[in-house]
Amino acid sequence: MSDKWTPQANPFAPPPRQRQSRRRKLLLLCFAALALVLLTNFFNLPASDEHVRAQRVPIHAQRILAQCAMLKMAPGPPAGFRERKESDRYEPGTKPTLIRNATIWTGARDGTEVIYGDVLLDKGIIKALGYVPSQLLDGLKETDVVDADGAWVTAGLVDLHSHLGIYGLPELRGTFELNSPNGPILPWLRSIDAFHTHDESVELAIAGGVTSVQILPGSSNAIAGQAFMLKLRKPSDRSASSMVIEPPHSLNGTEFDSSAPPRWRHLKQACGENIDRYGTRMDTAWSFRSAYNEARKIKLAQDAYCEKAEIGLWESLDGPFPESFQWEALVDVLRGRVKISNHCYEVVDIDALVRLSNEFKFYIASFHHAAEAYLIPDVLKKMWGGIPSVALFASLYRNKRESFRGSVFAPRVLADNGIPVIMKTDHPATNGRELLYQAQQAYYYGLPAGLALASVTSAPAHAAGLDHRIGVLREGFDADVVLWDSHPLRLGATPKRVWIDGTVQIPIPAPGSQYADGDGEVLVGRGKDDPEWRELPEVPNWKREMKRTVEWEGLPPLQGEETEGRVIFRNVSEMMVRSRDGEALETRFSMQATKAGGDEGVVVIEKGRVQCAGVGVACAAFVTNTRDRVVDLRGGVLAPALISFGAPVGLEEIQYEYSTGDGVLYDAFTNTVPPILGDVGGVMHASDALQFQTRNALLAYQAGVTVATSFLQAHFADRVIPGLSTTFRTGSKHALAPGAIIQPVSALHYSIHRPSALNLLGQQSATSVSTQIAVLRRLLLGKEDVEGRTETGKWFGKAAEGDVPLVVHVSDADAMARLLMIKREVESMRGTSMRMVFAGATEAHLLAKEIGHANVGAILSPSRPMPMTWDDHRISLPGPPLTNDTAIVKLLEQKVLVGLGVNDASYAMHTRLDLAWAAVDAGGRISNEQAMAMASLNLERLLGIDSLWATEQDEDVGGDIVAYEGGGALDMRSKVVAVISSRKSTVDLV
């Protein structure tokens, strides 16, 4: 039997031959050291007979000296690691792969190095890059050859902040392992002990090009425990242990491997609001200092013990080597052997941790979330041991007080100050599949292209201490490689191939995948034939906005310049408008379509209305007055404004700061509605809770989302009757401003869902699905109040009559089927035609034909699915590279009227990016006009918003118009510069 080491034999040990050789060398060194100590003691004996005696050497002296020697060794790869011929993660039988004719982003030279050529993968490592010598190929058998045809190749993406596997999806009581209730200081806990290998998000993350993740325990403890870096490839033994990259030698127990340098360990710390269950920030700071003081005592005792042993004072040793299971991870922190990831948002917390690091002399490798870090680069530079990295969201800010000053410009500001930037997902806070999207957004807002790609590859690998094997394409590194269908920083870039340890993961290789037996070969890259797709996209200049953000410490004024005079938009490449019948969006003129030569498109606006729009001399009569305001769009476009649906825009300032919102919502299913309300169902009007000038609303307005439909929501609660939504203008100053409230009541909302696993964990009561459906049937059939004397009876009666849309928030296809039956039953008994809409609608594609036949609409929210709960775990059409179709495509094919929504108010400003992604994933089967309609015209029709139409003079335009500078509404190269409102008779220059 061969003594060749394989992962199946022991995933934590080096190969036996190498281990034996190193052990022999260490034994010789230890014997030599022991002999030297004895000789030194012999020749330095004092003359007094009282002191002349031989030191008794303990039988385990060699082990003690070896252990003491190990304390002085720095973590890192063993000598000769770069010259290895085979990866420790290599799966025997994996065929070599040769990627030909690739454009290779290596990750070297601050992310600026790009080479052209081939990549050879064999035995789990990169054997050659750029030029592959023929002699390397001659000895290989059955090599898979992939012709990249010039496409981009990068290292596999690295997510430094993920809870994948310990916040397992779908949410179930047994898969939520994130936070421990057992105290603020828990360095002995380990995320690997709770990793669920069947988390349905694993395969989706790989489909996004993610190959390595750091699995962090939660943020509700000051020291939450030890984190682990994992590869997402399912190993042959299917264990979580075999997924760990370079597991610490002491992964289980306190045994150390004296034959190799120690490996990096990882620890999660947190500060700020999340730990308030254990006290204030002062309590947290003390808990840190107390814990590290205990670790320091142990470290000092170990150092003293080793000092005596190394000079031969064996009889003065007091007991065994001082160590503690409980505190050994923190002792390693003080010895510089641990990469700390520190959850920290605000200046006060970051400053406190920097002071702590200097007090106890340890290094924090990365601050995570760090919403205010860009405001204090000089504080970060005071970190003991060097400048830390900062791991950020691209745009998930303002959802809590700590993140209120966060900015999309933070990555660029930090980079300009020499702070390494990392983009992360915090899965499932954001979709783990969308790690690259975080980098794309950072690039859009100013982070240089090389650093943007590095932020999800080499930068997180370096922060984790693994930049000798992942995050970069270099000979001798792990064979984690992604072949993209377009430039990685283009919105919608999709992996055509993904290899982890040289083993192909995309296309799906195994029948164990829920997508393996789908619709045949997935056509990745469909609709991306234009050479432009492989080029780095242009992005706007945000210098002015960035400067203002820093000057105002994250809260710059957001009001634009309002003008009622004539505004002339020049260099307009296209104008998109509503068709005269109001059924679709269409292009009024397009420079690209007309090939107008040297002419330019011109649109003239006066008092918020279009006076002229055309090419060349069509509007010449309007452009002679030099007093008019002229805006050069530089090839930009005019397009209908967008609508936000699904997030509580305008109903709260800070999502998790309840004092800034509406307050407690009563649920008739779980609480007693106050008798004074006089309504059994507790149906509330969202318009009564509207707040204008919230930052999320104003930022959405500046991004071209000028209208929002919002309904009352209860955070972390399963409220069945959210009440009545309202539609308003996001840029209005107050409720009495002209056109501020477009429609006081837009729709009646109802929710059908299974009990939340998290609510059950918190011992909260929940209502059964059967009860929810039974009550809805009863209300629609008029059993509550035939005469409409209560709000509940009145509005459910209106919904049954078709006077107001009934928006049912539902994800599960079985519940949707029952709702379609109820719709038929109600319509038959009452002789009416209901206007029913499914919102959320994750599994709606499973009933696309039936939904279309029933004339029911669907608002997908979010637009890209994630199996968050059991109700929406059947996301069988996640799109390329797993399936050809998407849920949107399937619904549109069945003539379903589809809208797109968002779930978080901070995402409303990026609605157009969601639309662009939907169009890209459809592979050319959705036009730009159809995509734009899903967050404008379609939502108007679904929600019955009929007050957006303009007056008869310009009824072919209707609603607000947005001017984009530099490109199309769905392009990364454009940004909003003006909002044209016929209702307000103004043009707002933003």
TrEMBL record:
GO terms for biological process: purine nucleobase catabolic process. InterPro entries: Amidohydro-rel (IPR006680), DHOase/Allantoinase_Hydrolase (IPR050138), Metal-dep_hydrolase_composite (IPR011059), Metal_Hydrolase (IPR032466). One of its GO terms (cellular component) is cytoplasm. Residues 407-502 form the Amidohydrolase-related domain. It comes from the Eukaryota. GO terms for molecular function: allantoinase activity. PANTHER family: ALLANTOINASE, AMIDOHYDROLASE 3 DOMAIN-CONTAINING PROTEIN. This is Amidohydrolase-related domain-containing protein. It comes from Hericium alpestre. The lineage of its organism: Eukaryota, Fungi, Dikarya, Basidiomycota, Agaricomycotina.
